[in-house]
Specification:
With 310 residues, the chain is of the alpha/beta class. The chain has one domain: 3-Layer(aba) Sandwich (Rossmann fold). Helix content is 37%, strand content 19%. It is built from 11 helices and 12 strands. It has a 7-stranded mixed beta sheet, with helices on both faces. Helix 3 packs across helix 10 (253-269) and helix 4 (95-111) packs across helix 5.
Amino acid sequence: MTNLQQQERFAKANTFKNLYRQIGDNISNLERLRNQDYGDWKFEDYTHDKKTNFKAVVLKNDVTKEIAVFNIGTDFKNPKDILTNIKMAFGKPTGQMKKANDYHKKIAKKYQPLGYKMNSIGHSEGGSESQYVGIKNPETDVYTINAYPIGRIKAAKESPNKGANVYNFRDPYDPVSKLGKSFGNDFIVPISDDTKRKPFIFGYKEAHQVKNMGDINNALTPVEYKKRKDSLGFLDNLDNVILTGEDIGKMDRFTFRAYEPLINQLLKEGSVIPRTEADYRVALGDLIYVNGYTRSDGVQVSGYYRRAAA
């Protein structure tokens, strides 16, 4: 992909981000959802499967001949969505993923013969559903925002194109996209002022919200982002990371709910340890402590522990 092609893709992703936010603000009122001004995009369809709580909105652009299917993200007040997140944590496709794919195919069957390009967009759990759609429909372009990555499910492991059609955009402080195993092309969207963010390296609720996502036109690959001075201590994913009881205690409710399946698994394995034990294991060479950093406003951001390389 050339620089020009990448910038065009980033611009489209930023448009989809803004449309997603507009949809999310009105998702509870179908009449408002239908009558919103989406610019060149027009409301086409809405679906809600009450059995799985899968929700999606379809917009059509007759200028560019495109269809955009927006898969709506996790509702942490709904037990079905929480159970879905638990299944994803252990690498299993969910009922909502399958519903998303069925619905996408239904829309594609109607519009692809008319020459429309298909796009699938999702945030959080909706992003996971879009990634799954991308596996099953490689001709579809996928754009996700702070998605739970689905790289551990069998379909992702066996994907012939390895997610080449999937573009994931992440806030550096988002907790959800640090979970799971990455699938597709990851990009970090820098924030203009790190002093507006909480000094907690494992992430927090506000960083997950679409309304707080930065300008996607400025997105960088994780490797590029790590070269920035304000990325010191950036935690890309939780591979080989050791959680301490103190880390868990600092999590806000949203982050704890997102991490809960992982925390429960670590507790069963005896892998959640006190900070004193973590420091002792650093001295033994079993663990490494990754130093935090001092923000531009003088606030100290704590580091974290990870397993030493074998």
